[in-house]
Amino acid sequence: MALNYPNKKNTMTKTINKANLGMDLESMINESNEYYRVNDIAIIHKKPTPVQIVKVDYPMRSKAVITEAYYKIPSTTDYNGIYKGKYIDFEAKENHNKTSFPLANIHPHQVKHLLSIKKHGGIGFLIVAWSLYNEYYLLPLDILEKYWNDAYENDSRKSIPYKEFKDNCHLIKESYIPRLNFLKVVDELYFNDEKK
After folding, report:
1. DSSP string, 20-34
2. Which of 57, 59, 41 minimizes the C-alpha distance to 178?
């Protein structure tokens, strides 16, 4: 799929995955976040990654090309915003393994950041896509923390088994609108007391 601006310049080409109509996890979350914003449900944005541009080539005056750039600082997580008066912050990861989710997919500073969010009363979690099964799970921070501590403090396994996702994480069902209704799961986990 090509995305074009009004001047008809082709700005990006995307490979289409027939399994979910060309939508990768990030696209699905972005589309869901737009639905939440337009319908005044929540304000959640993808965080921009700070980049230091080092070299730009100008083959023509109107066509500058960035040829060298570096990340200024390590990014924290992918998304943040506010929902029902609570700060929300999460990372999105696609997993192509069949039996486990490698902890190497998450950086230590991201785990530290999410634990800090929790400590200060915010909501932090991961959304993990299991591409082979076309399944999406909300991975609560307490489960991530348990496996992280076991792996790096007790020298245990450095992955979370698929069975753990099936048994103790929360399936996010894909739908038409919103595409990935992860706030329904957030409601069940973090706002369940409001219904009582």
Report:
1. GTT--HHHHHHHHHH
2. 41
Closest CA to 186 of 138, 115, 142: 138
From CA 160, how far away is CA 146, in angstroms rounded? 10
Per-residue pLDDT of the chain (196 residues; tens, 9 = 90+): 344 444 444 444 444 343 443 469 999 999 999 999 999 999 999 987 767 777 888 877 778 887 877 766 667 899 999 999 999 999 999 999 999 999 999 999 999 999 999 999 999 999 999 999 999 999 999 999 999 999 988 888 899 999 999 999 999 999 889 999 999 999 999 998 654 4
Are the C-beta atoms of 169 and 143 separated by less than 8 Å?
A: yes
Domains, the chain: 17-195 (3.40.1350.10)
Calculated CA dihedral for residues 161, 167, 31, 10, nearest 10 degrees: 20
Query: Is the distance from CB of 60 to CB of 9 less than 8 angstroms?
Result: no
pTM for this structure?
Answer: 0.77
- One-character DSSP codes across 28-88: HHHHHHHHHHHTTS-EEEEPPPPEEEEEEEEEETTEEEEEEEEESS----SEEEEETTEEE
